[in-house]
Write a structure and sequence with these properties.
The protein is α/β, with parallel strands linked by helices and about 300 residues long. It is built from 13 helices and nine strands.
């Protein structure tokens, strides 16, 4: 039987942590362990986690000296004993049966990740947005490295199982990156094997609220440039893609990343900053303007 470790990094997450853990435990016996890595919480997070009687729920303290969400996730990854691992944010929740559904795609030995899709919810757990308008658009399946290099369509690690040993072997997430480190991690994983996409598989409720990272700290294109440089200078990625294609995909990823950061500002209703970022795109990266406008319009429409 497939075994899965769930890694939940958390810092001052008392409001949602019980719901996150409960959503994991109802997945059943496929869950080998729930590794909650506390990154120095000063609220009641630890007490709430310790209140679970299920022995699979384990509270881990972040080792001193480590900083950033990548270090916290990597510590959880280093302790994972399941054949597969999922990285779940402490304010999100899994849908019932999600992990068992994903496990159906884990059998082939060359598969390194299996993923589905998500819906956005608000702080009360109510669905928001209109992602159903693009539900018929299928995501890539198979050896997806080149498609993924063009832009991060995974969005949230809570929609995906990754083969634990493979991700551990190259060190998980790059702890030197502050932003888009997950995209780099998925690209390195895609260079190592095949991804399976399960169409119509709603895995995750992705919570968007006033104190979430997405809403609280708006990214700019310049914030993401170190990750782009890391991706396109990685030896495993360079070895897998021809130089002309690599150049083309780098331009595409820059276009995507810029458009994404502008759209997220609109999604967070920070319109002044969004318009400023859009103006900056017109002035300094005019070729990226069309995509930035398109993604911003989708964000404003709740897609």
């Amino acid at each position: 039987m497939t075994s899965v470790s769930i890694v939940i990094p958390v810092r001052n997450g008392e409001r949602y942590i019980l719901e996150a853990i409960d959503s994991v435990l109802v997945q059943g016996e496929i869950i080998r362990e729930v590794l909650v890595v506390d990154d120095g919480s000063t609220d009641a997070t630890a007490k709430k986690v310790e209140g679970f009687s299920d022995p699979r729920v384990k509270l881990l303290a972040r080792p001193q000296g480590r900083q950033g969400v990548s270090a916290v996730r990597n510590f959880g990854l280093s302790q994972a004993r399941g054949e597969w691992t999922m990285f779940l944010d402490a304010d999100d929740r899994l849908r019932p049966g999600a992990v068992n559904t994903l496990s159906a795609g884990t059998s082939p030995p060359d598969v390194v990740a299996v993923y589905g899709d998500y819906e956005r919810i608000d702080e009360r757990g109510q669905k928001i947005g209109r992602r159903n308008l693009i539900r018929r658009r299928e995501k890539p399946d198979g050896f997806i490295l080149e498609t993924l290099l063009g832009g991060n369509f995974i969005v949230n690690g809570g929609i995906m199982l990754v083969r634990t040993r493979v991700f551990q072997d190259f060190g998980g997430f790059d702890e030197s990156l502050r932003y888009a480190e997950d995209w780099y991690g998925w690209c390195r994983l895609a260079a190592a094997g095949r991804f399976v996409y399960l169409p119509g598989c709603h895995v995750l409720d992705y919570r968007v609220h006033a104190t979430s990272v997405m809403m609280n700290r708006l990214l700019t294109f310049r914030d993401c440039e170190p990750a782009i440089e890391a991706v396109f200078s990685d030896p495993a990625i360079i070895a897998a893609v021809s130089p002309p294609e690599l150049r083309r995909l780098r331009h595409r990823s820059e276009n995507h990343m810029n458009a994404y950061t502008v759209a997220q500002a609109f999604r967070a209703r920070r319109h002044r900053e969004a318009l400023s970022a859009l103006a900056d795109t017109f002035l300094h990266r005019p070729r990226q303007s069309f995509r930035a406008i398109a993604l911003s319009a989708a964000a404003l429409a709740g897609i």
